[in-house]
Amino acid sequence: MAPIAITPPVEGTETLSHLTEQGIAHAVQKSAPSQLKSASMTDNITSTPPSEPQSKVEPAIEATIAELDASKIQCTYTTAPRTVPEVGSAEMASQKVCSDHMIQAQWNSEQGWAAPTLQPYGPISLAPTASCLHYATECFEGMKLYRGYDGKLRLFRPNLNCNRMLMSTNRIALPAFPPKELLKLIVKLCATDGAKWLPKDRPGQFLYIRPTMIASDPALGVERPKEAMLFVILCCFAPMGNMNGGIKLLASQDDMCRAWPGGFGYAKVGANYGPSLVAQGEARKQGYHQILWLFGEDCTITEAGASNFFVVWRTKEGKLQLVTADLNEKIVLDGVTRRSILELARAKLTSTHGDLEAVEIVERKFNIFEIVEAAKEGRLVEAFAAGTAWFVAPISQIHFRGSDIEVPMVKGEIGAYAEVFRGWLQGIMWGSDGMESHEWGHVVDEA
Ligand SMILES: *Cc1c(COP(=O)(O)O)cnc(C)c1O
Protein backbone atom coordinates (compact mmCIF):
# COMPACT_ATOMS: atom_id res chain seq x y z
CA MET A 1 0.00 0.00 0.00
CA ALA A 2 1.21 3.48 -0.77
CA PRO A 3 2.32 5.70 2.12
CA ILE A 4 -0.55 7.65 3.53
CA ALA A 5 -0.55 11.39 3.90
CA ILE A 6 -1.09 12.70 7.39
CA THR A 7 -3.61 15.46 7.93
CA PRO A 8 -1.60 18.65 7.58
CA PRO A 9 -1.31 20.45 10.91
CA VAL A 10 -2.61 23.98 10.97
CA GLU A 11 0.16 26.35 11.97
CA GLY A 12 -0.27 28.32 15.14
CA THR A 13 -3.30 26.42 16.37
CA GLU A 14 -3.78 23.63 18.83
CA THR A 15 -4.64 21.18 16.10
CA LEU A 16 -1.08 19.85 15.97
CA SER A 17 -1.36 16.19 16.87
CA HIS A 18 0.31 14.93 19.99
CA LEU A 19 1.34 11.78 18.22
CA THR A 20 3.65 13.11 15.54
CA GLU A 21 7.27 14.12 16.10
CA GLN A 22 6.28 17.68 15.26
CA GLY A 23 3.33 17.68 17.61
CA ILE A 24 5.39 16.23 20.43
CA ALA A 25 8.10 18.83 19.91
CA HIS A 26 5.46 21.55 19.97
CA ALA A 27 3.85 20.23 23.15
CA VAL A 28 7.11 19.77 24.99
CA GLN A 29 8.54 23.07 23.84
CA LYS A 30 5.60 24.96 25.26
CA SER A 31 6.19 23.82 28.82
CA ALA A 32 9.80 22.66 28.94
CA PRO A 33 12.06 23.72 26.10
CA SER A 34 15.06 22.11 27.76
CA GLN A 35 13.60 18.69 27.14
CA LEU A 36 13.11 19.23 23.47
CA LYS A 37 16.54 18.33 22.22
CA SER A 38 16.75 14.99 23.90
CA ALA A 39 13.13 14.06 23.60
CA SER A 40 12.30 14.67 20.00
CA MET A 41 14.87 16.15 17.75
CA THR A 42 18.01 14.08 18.19
CA ASP A 43 19.15 10.94 19.91
CA ASN A 44 21.78 10.62 22.58
CA ILE A 45 21.83 14.14 23.91
CA THR A 46 21.32 14.27 27.63
CA SER A 47 18.59 16.49 28.94
CA THR A 48 18.32 18.86 31.81
CA PRO A 49 15.99 17.61 34.49
CA PRO A 50 12.41 18.72 33.88
CA SER A 51 12.44 20.34 37.31
CA GLU A 52 14.85 22.99 36.03
CA PRO A 53 13.03 26.30 35.66
CA GLN A 54 12.72 26.74 31.93
CA SER A 55 13.94 30.33 31.96
CA LYS A 56 17.48 29.53 33.08
CA VAL A 57 18.70 26.29 31.62
CA GLU A 58 22.36 25.80 32.35
CA PRO A 59 24.24 23.84 29.73
CA ALA A 60 26.66 22.53 32.37
CA ILE A 61 23.87 20.50 33.94
CA GLU A 62 22.90 18.93 30.64
CA ALA A 63 26.06 16.90 30.53
CA THR A 64 25.64 15.36 33.97
CA ILE A 65 22.10 14.06 33.65
CA ALA A 66 21.79 10.60 32.13
CA GLU A 67 19.26 10.05 29.37
CA LEU A 68 17.12 6.92 29.18
CA ASP A 69 19.33 4.53 27.21
CA ALA A 70 18.00 1.13 26.16
CA SER A 71 21.47 -0.07 25.16
CA LYS A 72 22.48 -0.09 28.84
CA ILE A 73 19.83 -2.66 29.72
CA GLN A 74 20.72 -5.23 32.40
CA CYS A 75 18.88 -8.54 32.07
CA THR A 76 18.00 -10.98 34.85
CA TYR A 77 15.97 -13.92 33.61
CA THR A 78 13.36 -15.69 35.69
CA THR A 79 14.11 -18.94 37.50
CA ALA A 80 10.41 -19.50 38.25
CA PRO A 81 8.67 -19.54 34.87
CA ARG A 82 4.98 -18.70 34.95
CA THR A 83 2.25 -20.79 33.29
CA VAL A 84 0.58 -19.53 30.14
CA PRO A 85 -3.24 -19.73 30.58
CA GLU A 86 -5.30 -21.91 28.24
CA VAL A 87 -6.74 -20.10 25.25
CA GLY A 88 -10.31 -19.09 26.05
CA SER A 89 -9.94 -19.69 29.80
CA ALA A 90 -11.35 -17.33 32.42
CA GLU A 91 -7.77 -16.81 33.60
CA MET A 92 -6.78 -15.57 30.15
CA ALA A 93 -9.57 -12.99 30.23
CA SER A 94 -9.01 -11.95 33.86
CA GLN A 95 -6.41 -9.29 32.93
CA LYS A 96 -4.43 -10.47 35.97
CA VAL A 97 -1.91 -12.76 34.32
CA CYS A 98 1.32 -11.18 33.15
CA SER A 99 4.24 -12.70 31.27
CA ASP A 100 7.54 -13.84 32.84
CA HIS A 101 9.42 -10.55 32.67
CA MET A 102 9.02 -6.80 32.98
CA ILE A 103 11.06 -3.73 32.11
CA GLN A 104 11.91 -1.21 34.80
CA ALA A 105 13.88 2.06 34.82
CA GLN A 106 14.43 4.51 37.66
CA TRP A 107 14.90 8.26 37.32
CA ASN A 108 15.82 11.01 39.71
CA SER A 109 16.33 14.71 39.18
CA GLU A 110 20.01 14.61 40.15
CA GLN A 111 21.30 11.72 38.06
CA GLY A 112 18.61 11.32 35.43
CA TRP A 113 17.85 7.82 34.16
CA ALA A 114 19.60 4.78 35.63
CA ALA A 115 20.33 1.77 33.42
CA PRO A 116 17.03 0.04 32.62
CA THR A 117 16.48 -3.57 33.64
CA LEU A 118 14.68 -6.57 32.24
CA GLN A 119 13.76 -8.65 35.29
CA PRO A 120 11.29 -11.29 36.47
CA TYR A 121 7.72 -9.95 36.66
CA GLY A 122 6.75 -9.20 40.25
CA PRO A 123 5.54 -6.63 42.77
CA ILE A 124 7.20 -3.24 43.01
CA SER A 125 8.02 -1.56 46.28
CA LEU A 126 6.87 1.98 47.01
CA ALA A 127 6.91 4.15 50.12
CA PRO A 128 3.41 4.93 51.42
CA THR A 129 4.35 8.59 50.84
CA ALA A 130 5.02 7.99 47.11
CA SER A 131 3.75 10.91 45.02
CA CYS A 132 1.72 8.74 42.62
CA LEU A 133 -0.34 7.29 45.48
CA HIS A 134 -1.53 10.75 46.53
CA TYR A 135 -1.38 13.12 43.57
CA ALA A 136 -2.11 10.94 40.54
CA THR A 137 1.36 11.45 39.08
CA GLU A 138 0.84 8.46 36.81
CA CYS A 139 0.44 7.94 33.09
CA PHE A 140 0.35 4.92 30.83
CA GLU A 141 -0.01 3.55 27.32
CA GLY A 142 -2.04 0.69 25.89
CA MET A 143 -0.68 -1.31 22.97
CA LYS A 144 -0.82 -4.88 21.72
CA LEU A 145 1.69 -7.47 20.58
CA TYR A 146 0.17 -9.56 17.77
CA ARG A 147 1.11 -13.09 16.67
CA GLY A 148 0.60 -12.93 12.94
CA TYR A 149 -0.83 -15.46 10.53
CA ASP A 150 2.58 -15.42 8.86
CA GLY A 151 4.20 -16.47 12.17
CA LYS A 152 5.72 -13.04 12.88
CA LEU A 153 5.29 -10.90 15.99
CA ARG A 154 4.17 -7.35 15.33
CA LEU A 155 3.47 -4.08 17.06
CA PHE A 156 1.09 -1.57 15.45
CA ARG A 157 2.56 1.93 14.94
CA PRO A 158 4.32 1.74 18.34
CA ASN A 159 6.24 4.98 17.75
CA LEU A 160 2.95 6.86 18.09
CA ASN A 161 2.32 5.34 21.52
CA CYS A 162 5.85 6.22 22.66
CA ASN A 163 5.40 9.81 21.46
CA ARG A 164 2.06 10.04 23.25
CA MET A 165 3.59 8.65 26.44
CA LEU A 166 6.10 11.51 26.39
CA MET A 167 3.30 14.00 25.90
CA SER A 168 1.44 12.48 28.87
CA THR A 169 4.50 12.54 31.16
CA ASN A 170 5.04 16.14 30.17
CA ARG A 171 1.49 17.06 31.22
CA ILE A 172 1.93 15.73 34.75
CA ALA A 173 5.51 16.80 35.54
CA LEU A 174 7.08 13.37 35.04
CA PRO A 175 10.51 13.21 33.36
CA ALA A 176 11.07 13.32 29.63
CA PHE A 177 12.80 10.53 27.70
CA PRO A 178 13.57 9.79 24.06
CA PRO A 179 10.50 7.93 22.75
CA LYS A 180 12.77 5.75 20.58
CA GLU A 181 14.48 4.41 23.71
CA LEU A 182 11.14 3.46 25.23
CA LEU A 183 10.28 1.66 22.00
CA LYS A 184 13.54 -0.31 22.16
CA LEU A 185 12.73 -1.39 25.72
CA ILE A 186 9.22 -2.47 24.72
CA VAL A 187 10.63 -4.44 21.79
CA LYS A 188 13.19 -6.11 24.07
CA LEU A 189 10.45 -7.32 26.44
CA CYS A 190 8.29 -8.51 23.54
CA ALA A 191 11.22 -10.34 21.97
CA THR A 192 12.02 -12.03 25.30
CA ASP A 193 8.53 -13.25 26.22
CA GLY A 194 6.80 -13.36 22.82
CA ALA A 195 7.79 -16.88 21.78
CA LYS A 196 6.44 -18.53 24.93
CA TRP A 197 3.39 -16.34 25.54
CA LEU A 198 2.26 -16.07 21.93
CA PRO A 199 3.19 -19.47 20.47
CA LYS A 200 3.67 -19.60 16.71
CA ASP A 201 0.97 -22.23 16.37
CA ARG A 202 -1.60 -19.82 17.77
CA PRO A 203 -1.82 -17.05 15.16
CA GLY A 204 -4.41 -14.36 15.75
CA GLN A 205 -3.54 -14.08 19.46
CA PHE A 206 -2.15 -11.02 21.22
CA LEU A 207 -0.79 -9.74 24.53
CA TYR A 208 -1.67 -6.33 25.95
CA ILE A 209 1.35 -4.08 26.58
CA ARG A 210 1.16 -1.58 29.40
CA PRO A 211 4.03 0.95 29.60
CA THR A 212 3.57 3.00 32.77
CA MET A 213 5.34 5.85 34.52
CA ILE A 214 4.81 6.83 38.14
CA ALA A 215 6.35 9.42 40.45
CA SER A 216 7.95 7.46 43.27
CA ASP A 217 9.24 10.28 45.51
CA PRO A 218 8.94 9.17 49.12
CA ALA A 219 7.71 12.60 50.23
CA LEU A 220 4.27 14.14 50.69
CA GLY A 221 5.16 17.60 49.35
CA VAL A 222 2.81 18.76 46.62
CA GLU A 223 5.48 19.53 44.06
CA ARG A 224 7.19 18.39 40.88
CA PRO A 225 8.41 14.83 41.38
CA LYS A 226 12.14 14.29 41.89
CA GLU A 227 11.96 10.52 41.49
CA ALA A 228 10.13 8.39 38.98
CA MET A 229 9.86 4.85 37.76
CA LEU A 230 9.08 3.58 34.29
CA PHE A 231 7.87 0.04 33.85
CA VAL A 232 6.47 -2.08 31.04
CA ILE A 233 4.44 -5.26 31.54
CA LEU A 234 2.79 -7.73 29.15
CA CYS A 235 -0.67 -8.88 30.23
CA CYS A 236 -3.00 -11.60 28.94
CA PHE A 237 -6.29 -10.23 27.65
CA ALA A 238 -9.61 -11.63 26.51
CA PRO A 239 -9.58 -12.46 22.78
CA MET A 240 -10.38 -9.57 20.47
CA GLY A 241 -14.05 -9.12 21.31
CA ASN A 242 -15.56 -8.91 17.91
CA MET A 243 -18.53 -7.21 19.61
CA ASN A 244 -20.75 -8.41 16.82
CA GLY A 245 -24.29 -7.41 17.48
CA GLY A 246 -22.97 -4.03 18.46
CA ILE A 247 -22.31 -2.25 21.72
CA LYS A 248 -24.87 -0.13 23.54
CA LEU A 249 -23.83 3.28 24.83
CA LEU A 250 -25.32 5.32 27.65
CA ALA A 251 -24.86 9.07 27.13
CA SER A 252 -23.30 10.79 30.14
CA GLN A 253 -25.61 12.83 32.39
CA ASP A 254 -25.53 16.62 32.51
CA ASP A 255 -23.84 16.59 35.93
CA MET A 256 -20.69 14.78 34.81
CA CYS A 257 -18.05 15.14 32.11
CA ARG A 258 -14.82 13.29 31.38
CA ALA A 259 -12.63 16.17 30.24
CA TRP A 260 -12.76 19.93 29.82
CA PRO A 261 -10.76 22.61 27.98
CA GLY A 262 -7.60 23.36 29.91
CA GLY A 263 -7.72 19.94 31.57
CA PHE A 264 -5.91 16.77 30.59
CA GLY A 265 -8.42 14.67 28.67
CA TYR A 266 -5.98 14.53 25.75
CA ALA A 267 -3.33 12.76 27.90
CA LYS A 268 -3.37 9.11 28.95
CA VAL A 269 -3.02 9.94 32.64
CA GLY A 270 -4.57 7.73 35.32
CA ALA A 271 -6.42 10.75 36.72
CA ASN A 272 -8.78 10.58 33.72
CA TYR A 273 -9.99 7.06 34.41
CA GLY A 274 -10.68 6.55 38.12
CA PRO A 275 -13.32 9.31 38.22
CA SER A 276 -15.11 7.82 35.17
CA LEU A 277 -15.77 4.49 36.87
CA VAL A 278 -18.90 5.54 38.78
CA ALA A 279 -20.67 6.39 35.52
CA GLN A 280 -19.22 3.31 33.81
CA GLY A 281 -20.42 1.07 36.64
CA GLU A 282 -23.89 2.58 36.37
CA ALA A 283 -23.91 1.99 32.60
CA ARG A 284 -22.96 -1.68 33.09
CA LYS A 285 -25.66 -2.10 35.72
CA GLN A 286 -28.26 -0.80 33.27
CA GLY A 287 -27.09 -3.14 30.51
CA TYR A 288 -24.91 -0.73 28.52
CA HIS A 289 -21.31 -1.42 27.56
CA GLN A 290 -19.83 2.06 27.81
CA ILE A 291 -20.54 5.71 28.50
CA LEU A 292 -20.76 8.09 25.56
CA TRP A 293 -19.07 11.14 27.05
CA LEU A 294 -20.79 14.41 26.19
CA PHE A 295 -19.45 17.85 27.02
CA GLY A 296 -21.12 21.18 27.67
CA GLU A 297 -24.63 22.52 27.30
CA ASP A 298 -24.76 21.70 23.61
CA CYS A 299 -23.91 18.04 24.41
CA THR A 300 -20.80 17.87 22.24
CA ILE A 301 -19.81 14.27 21.57
CA THR A 302 -16.29 13.48 22.72
CA GLU A 303 -15.54 9.76 23.20
CA ALA A 304 -17.09 6.38 24.00
CA GLY A 305 -15.45 5.00 27.16
CA ALA A 306 -11.75 4.76 26.33
CA SER A 307 -12.37 4.62 22.60
CA ASN A 308 -12.83 7.32 19.98
CA PHE A 309 -16.32 7.71 18.50
CA PHE A 310 -17.14 7.71 14.78
CA VAL A 311 -20.44 8.20 13.00
CA VAL A 312 -21.35 7.80 9.33
CA TRP A 313 -24.35 9.86 8.27
CA ARG A 314 -25.84 11.52 5.24
CA THR A 315 -26.15 15.29 5.42
CA LYS A 316 -29.46 16.98 4.63
CA GLU A 317 -27.90 17.81 1.26
CA GLY A 318 -27.30 14.10 0.66
CA LYS A 319 -23.55 13.95 1.16
CA LEU A 320 -22.17 10.83 2.91
CA GLN A 321 -19.78 11.74 5.74
CA LEU A 322 -17.51 9.94 8.21
CA VAL A 323 -17.44 12.21 11.26
CA THR A 324 -15.37 12.18 14.45
CA ALA A 325 -14.57 14.80 17.10
CA ASP A 326 -11.65 17.11 16.34
CA LEU A 327 -8.75 17.51 18.76
CA ASN A 328 -8.82 21.31 19.00
CA GLU A 329 -10.15 21.70 22.53
CA LYS A 330 -7.90 18.95 23.91
CA ILE A 331 -10.85 17.14 25.44
CA VAL A 332 -10.43 14.08 23.23
CA LEU A 333 -7.58 11.57 23.24
CA ASP A 334 -5.57 11.42 20.02
CA GLY A 335 -6.07 7.67 19.48
CA VAL A 336 -3.73 5.65 17.30
CA THR A 337 -6.73 3.69 16.00
CA ARG A 338 -8.64 6.95 15.34
CA ARG A 339 -5.70 8.42 13.45
CA SER A 340 -5.23 5.20 11.46
CA ILE A 341 -8.90 5.05 10.47
CA LEU A 342 -8.84 8.68 9.33
CA GLU A 343 -5.67 8.09 7.31
CA LEU A 344 -7.04 4.90 5.73
CA ALA A 345 -10.30 6.67 4.91
CA ARG A 346 -8.45 9.58 3.29
CA ALA A 347 -6.32 7.17 1.28
CA LYS A 348 -9.01 4.73 0.17
CA LEU A 349 -12.53 6.02 0.68
CA THR A 350 -12.62 9.43 -0.93
CA SER A 351 -13.65 7.63 -4.09
CA THR A 352 -15.86 4.56 -4.52
CA HIS A 353 -14.27 1.44 -3.03
CA GLY A 354 -15.86 -1.83 -4.17
CA ASP A 355 -19.46 -1.70 -2.98
CA LEU A 356 -18.71 1.24 -0.72
CA GLU A 357 -19.76 4.76 -1.60
CA ALA A 358 -17.09 7.45 -1.18
CA VAL A 359 -17.25 9.41 2.08
CA GLU A 360 -16.27 12.92 3.03
CA ILE A 361 -13.98 12.74 6.08
CA VAL A 362 -14.84 15.32 8.71
CA GLU A 363 -13.11 16.12 12.00
CA ARG A 364 -15.22 18.70 13.78
CA LYS A 365 -17.14 19.58 16.90
CA PHE A 366 -20.57 17.91 16.65
CA ASN A 367 -23.27 17.05 19.12
CA ILE A 368 -25.76 14.37 20.00
CA PHE A 369 -28.73 16.39 18.77
CA GLU A 370 -27.30 16.08 15.26
CA ILE A 371 -27.32 12.30 15.67
CA VAL A 372 -30.86 12.33 17.09
CA GLU A 373 -32.00 14.37 14.08
CA ALA A 374 -30.14 12.21 11.55
CA ALA A 375 -31.71 9.07 13.08
CA LYS A 376 -35.18 10.62 12.97
CA GLU A 377 -34.76 11.61 9.33
CA GLY A 378 -33.30 8.24 8.29
CA ARG A 379 -29.86 9.75 7.56
CA LEU A 380 -27.92 7.83 10.24
CA VAL A 381 -25.86 5.15 8.48
CA GLU A 382 -23.70 3.62 11.25
CA ALA A 383 -21.54 4.40 14.27
CA PHE A 384 -18.56 2.67 15.86
CA ALA A 385 -16.02 3.04 18.65
CA ALA A 386 -12.30 2.67 17.91
CA GLY A 387 -9.36 2.03 20.23
CA THR A 388 -6.66 -0.52 20.95
CA ALA A 389 -8.54 -2.36 23.71
CA TRP A 390 -11.95 -2.70 22.01
CA PHE A 391 -10.60 -2.40 18.49
CA VAL A 392 -13.39 -1.38 16.05
CA ALA A 393 -16.67 -1.99 17.85
CA PRO A 394 -19.96 -1.39 16.02
CA ILE A 395 -22.54 0.60 18.00
CA SER A 396 -26.15 -0.61 17.91
CA GLN A 397 -27.84 1.79 20.30
CA ILE A 398 -27.31 5.06 22.16
CA HIS A 399 -29.46 5.98 25.13
CA PHE A 400 -29.85 9.73 25.65
CA ARG A 401 -32.25 11.53 28.02
CA GLY A 402 -34.79 8.75 28.27
CA SER A 403 -34.85 7.75 24.59
CA ASP A 404 -33.00 5.17 22.56
CA ILE A 405 -31.34 6.04 19.29
CA GLU A 406 -31.25 2.88 17.18
CA VAL A 407 -28.12 2.79 15.04
CA PRO A 408 -28.29 0.79 11.80
CA MET A 409 -25.83 -2.04 11.06
CA VAL A 410 -26.26 -2.81 7.37
CA LYS A 411 -24.19 -5.99 7.53
CA GLY A 412 -26.46 -7.38 10.23
CA GLU A 413 -23.95 -7.36 13.06
CA ILE A 414 -21.81 -4.43 11.96
CA GLY A 415 -21.86 -1.46 9.59
CA ALA A 416 -20.16 -1.62 6.21
CA TYR A 417 -17.52 1.01 7.02
CA ALA A 418 -16.65 -0.41 10.45
CA GLU A 419 -16.25 -3.78 8.75
CA VAL A 420 -13.87 -2.52 6.11
CA PHE A 421 -11.73 -0.57 8.62
CA ARG A 422 -11.56 -3.60 10.87
CA GLY A 423 -10.47 -5.78 7.97
CA TRP A 424 -7.72 -3.41 6.84
CA LEU A 425 -6.37 -2.93 10.35
CA GLN A 426 -6.44 -6.66 11.15
CA GLY A 427 -4.52 -7.39 7.97
CA ILE A 428 -1.77 -5.00 9.07
CA MET A 429 -1.71 -6.16 12.70
CA TRP A 430 -1.67 -9.88 11.94
CA GLY A 431 0.21 -9.81 8.65
CA SER A 432 -2.50 -11.19 6.40
CA ASP A 433 -4.57 -10.24 3.35
CA GLY A 434 -1.54 -8.91 1.50
CA MET A 435 -0.65 -6.48 4.32
CA GLU A 436 2.41 -8.49 5.52
CA SER A 437 4.85 -5.69 4.89
CA HIS A 438 2.74 -2.62 5.60
CA GLU A 439 4.76 0.22 7.14
CA TRP A 440 2.43 0.38 10.17
CA GLY A 441 3.28 -3.18 11.19
CA HIS A 442 6.49 -3.15 13.27
CA VAL A 443 7.95 -6.68 13.17
CA VAL A 444 9.62 -7.83 16.42
CA ASP A 445 12.58 -10.16 15.89
CA GLU A 446 12.35 -12.91 18.46
CA ALA A 447 15.09 -13.93 20.86
C1 LIG B 1 -6.53 4.90 24.88
C2 LIG B 1 -7.73 5.70 24.61
C3 LIG B 1 -8.32 5.78 23.34
C4 LIG B 1 -7.86 4.94 22.18
O1 LIG B 1 -6.57 5.22 21.77
P1 LIG B 1 -5.78 4.16 20.91
O2 LIG B 1 -4.44 4.77 20.74
O3 LIG B 1 -6.50 4.00 19.64
O4 LIG B 1 -5.75 2.89 21.70
C5 LIG B 1 -9.38 6.65 23.15
N1 LIG B 1 -9.87 7.39 24.17
C6 LIG B 1 -9.35 7.32 25.41
C7 LIG B 1 -9.93 8.16 26.48
C8 LIG B 1 -8.28 6.47 25.67
O5 LIG B 1 -7.79 6.38 26.90
Q: Distance N terminus to C terminus?
A: 29 Å
Largest sheet: 10 strands, mixed
**Percent of residues in helices:** 10-25%
Q: In the CATH scheme, what's the topology name of the largest domain?
A: D-amino Acid Aminotransferase, Chain A, domain 2
* Estimated share of beta-strand residues: 15-25%
Shape: globular
Low-confidence stretches: 1-15, 30-56
Under the CATH scheme, which architecture of the largest domain would be assigned? Alpha-Beta Barrel
User: What is the ordering of alpha helices and beta strands?
Assistant: HHHEHEEEHEEEHHEEEHEEEEHEHEEEHE
Catalytic activity: L-leucine + 2-oxoglutarate = 4-methyl-2-oxopentanoate + L-glutamate; L-isoleucine + 2-oxoglutarate = (S)-3-methyl-2-oxopentanoate + L-glutamate; L-valine + 2-oxoglutarate = 3-methyl-2-oxobutanoate + L-glutamate
Pfam families: Aminotran_4
Family: Belongs to the class-IV pyridoxal-phosphate-dependent aminotransferase family.
EC number: 2.6.1.42
Plain-language structure description:
With 447 residues, this protein is α+β, with helices and mostly antiparallel strands. It folds into 2 domains: 70-236, Aminotransferase class 4, branched-chain amino acid transferase, N-terminal domain (D-amino Acid Aminotransferase, Chain A, domain 1, 2-Layer Sandwich), CATH 3.30.470.10; 247-430, Alpha-Beta Barrel (D-amino Acid Aminotransferase, Chain A, domain 2), CATH 3.20.10.10. Helices cover 24% and strands 24% of the residues. The protein contains 11 helices and 19 strands. It has helices at 21-31, 36-41, 59-62, 90-93, 131-135, 158-171, 179-197, 277-285, 336-348, 368-376, 416-430; strands at residues 74-75, 101-108, 112-113, 117-120, 138-140, 143-147, 153-156, 206-215, 227-235, 247-251, 290-295, 300-304, 307-314, 320-324, 360-363, 380-387, 391-400, 403-406, 441-444. Strands 1, 2, 3, 4, 5, 6, 7, 8, 9 and 19 form a 10-stranded mixed β-sheet that branches. Helix 1 packs parallel to helix 6 (158-171) and helix 6 packs across helix 7. Mean pLDDT is 89; it is low at 1-15 and 30-56. Bound molecules: pyridoxal-5'-phosphate (PLP). Residues 142, 268, 303, 306-308, 333, 335-338, 387-388 line the site of pyridoxal-5'-phosphate. Belongs to the class-IV pyridoxal-phosphate-dependent aminotransferase family. One of its GO terms (cellular component) is mitochondrion. The modification N6-(pyridoxal phosphate)lysine is found at residue 268. Residues 29-57 are annotated as: Disordered.
